Amino acid sequence: MSPQQSRPKANPLSKSETAPESTVDDTRRRGRGARSNHSGRFEAERRLTFDDGWESLGELEAFRTEVYAEPARSIITRNQSPDISFDQSINPYRGCEHGCIYCYARPSHCYLGHSAGLDFETKLYAKTNAAELLEKELAARTYKPKVLALGTNTDPYQPIEREHRITRQILEVLERTGHPVGIVTKSALVLRDADILARMAARGLAKVALSVTTLDRRIARAMEPRATTPGKRLEAIRGLAQAGVPVSVMMAPIVPGLTDPEIERILEAARDAGASEAGYVLLRLPLELKDVFREWLAEEFPDRADRVINLLRSMHGGRDYVAEYGQRQKGRGPYADQIALRFRLALKRLGLNERRHALRLDLFRPPVGKGQQMPLL
Predict the structure, then answer these.
(1) Model pTM?
(2) Which residues of 150-159 are buried (b: 16+ CB within 10 A; e: fewer)?
(3) What is the rounded distance in angstroms from the CA atom of residue 278 to the CA atom of residue 286?
(4) Residue 147, domain CATH
(5) Model confidence over 249-301: pLDDT tens digits?
(6) Are 367 and 135 in contact (CB under 8 A)?
(7) 147 is in which domain, residue-wise?
């Protein structure tokens, strides 16, 4: 699909189609993660699509992926969060077609006047000038190199990257300037860029983390409907490792009562595929996400829904989510301690994290901006 030149206009039948207690018909959301499309917290109205008896609505269309061009004003995002391992990041896209039901980035779509539900998976924005902006920002005299993280909010290798290739353009700039990058993805599409990543890794400039949340294809299909299958993710780990790219596996997130029984098996499978490092994040349910996730859980795993939520709340002081630094990623309490202990023991047994791959900062050479003099040496 060709990107449009403007954001979609509000449509009372498509922007916010369901009331808080209703879900979208199965046939209209087939292959999607969210069950509803509730209005976000910034919207003054909630709208409900219903049959008024006049047959005025006709047959409602299925949700389809729409991509909108969004020329960005800046591209490097900076943070000072003490529990995040990077200081600056780039997200080539807003929204994510993978449709992962647990994605903590869903509420960010509400800033655009969209829903954290189906809108997040179907109304996507491509930052078409990302590479050009990156080159400009790297050329600034005040810029100091730090590892750039790709894929911290939405996946840089989601399906639309095949056509738009924004992530690859960003990597080309980073390789040319000798700038370090760390990538987080759950897509085997990352192998397409193994040529660039291998060259950068040989210089100590690149590493990749593959997110593997489950090895159960049934759970993965329900939880991450348009993401790469677990087996293909393991193949991506193997392919990158064979190309000389340092690879880690991220269990992000661990869903208590649903995917935590797989901790040891996932780590072992990833180690056998070539991963040398590993990490995890506990399920986070900020803002609108808590309702989106609960709807999905009640429909897909009704026999486990109460247990999952009760375990999660036990790790957040009786609440669905605590935004406090240090607690939001790993939780607290006996069950959180048990997960952390199992993870540590598995790491030790499997020899993971014995060596950390630190990326180099000393190779960075800023691009020459328009009107600037090229270096003499």
Answers:
(1) 0.87
(2) bbbbbbbbbb
(3) 24
(4) 3.80.30.30
(5) 999 999 999 999 999 999 999 999 999 999 999 999 999 999 999 999 999 99
(6) yes
(7) 64-350
